[in-house]
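Appendix B. Raw example, untouched.
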Amino acid sequence: MDYFPFFVKLSQKPCLVIGAGNCAARKIELLLRADAKITVIAREINPHVAQFKNITLIQKDVEARDLDGFKFVISATDNEQTNQFVSDCAKERGILVNVVDNPPLCDFIFPAIVDRAPLTIAVSSGGASPVLARFLRAKIETLIPPTYGTLAQLAEKFRENVKQKITRPAQRRIFWENILQGRIAELVFSGQKEAAENELLQAIEQEEPQKNNGEVYLIGAGPGAADLLTFRALRLMQQADVIVYDRLVSAEILDLARRDSDKIYVGKERSNHSVPQDEINALLVKLAKEGKRVARLKGGDPFIFGRGGEEIETLMQQGVAFQVVPGITAATGCASYAGIPLTHRDYAQSCIFVTGHLKDHSINLNWTQLAAPNQTVVIYMGLVGLEKICESLIEHGSSPDLPMAVVEQGTTANQRVLTGTLSTLPARLKNETVKPPTLIIIGEVVKLQEKLHWFKN
């Protein structure tokens, strides 16, 4: 171990920074977050540094006596002689010194920091590869959302209560382990801080965490690409006991779930529902009441043609705890990957999402509204009724030359974008083999696709 990691409380401690360029500015920003009392000495003051408040700026060359009285010093100049001088003077005085990007002159180095105050995580390569340390920090950022800081604050607030109630250290450790990875933690993560505090108070009185009655995570799995999942979706998938998933959830996304979780397929295709919706609702209730954590994975976003509202109605009626995790809906995901902006100042000032078939399998839509100009119409599940859709729009005033696109398996390696007009695209698709999932985009914005498409698969 070349560097021993420890954390120092710098609040109102005197810290000296030599240099006032961009590199120095970054170090000053970190020190300000730690409430340090900062003095900056430099021959030239960068405007970025000059705008900082609550620091002392001294414009001059550094002298040995300038270091007197400081706890530690940072030299952030591009002058090697100055950096060597500052390092030598600091070491003569027993002051800890950091010289930016020069480990041999340093007593300490700055790690890559994940700030979840009061929780702080530091990653260091000992100066060998700062870029690698930043990569690892980015990975940690994805695994530890900001709400872990709130969880740490909750533990801090009730630490003494627990200590007084549960006197045996081993028993206290088990108590906190259960709290920090159970239902109370999930309440914090979902923003229900008051409910978390109330349940923690009850747990302290009982000297054990509340019984886990199970929970359902209604998760939007996005339009197809696995790396479009949200951080929260990934975290909940990796702790769920059971995964209940739809047809539009890809194998790559399922691979991100907990390895030993049970996986139950409840996919639906047009006119072929492997599991009716009522049975899916009942299944979610049953699994949760067995004490299981259930990840209900839905393609896109659960509240945009995903029947998420129907499912949580049942969960609420049955008193089952749940969370809803939004996902990137197919409209935004597929349009972005196809290079078709859904709104544009010159072409479309509004956007409408509709489904291509209703609950009774009809295509009885408000055609007058959909045929209005200067808007984009996005149609989910409309491939089978495409010809009827185009005919109805033309009948209600849309130009036969209005551009439209069909995006097949959007955001994935198999994405294909077929473009045409209301009058030409249905005929073109008769000569193509198009496989769901598909999304239909209608409007003048489709004209931009040829120029703006960027996704190469």
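End of appendix B.
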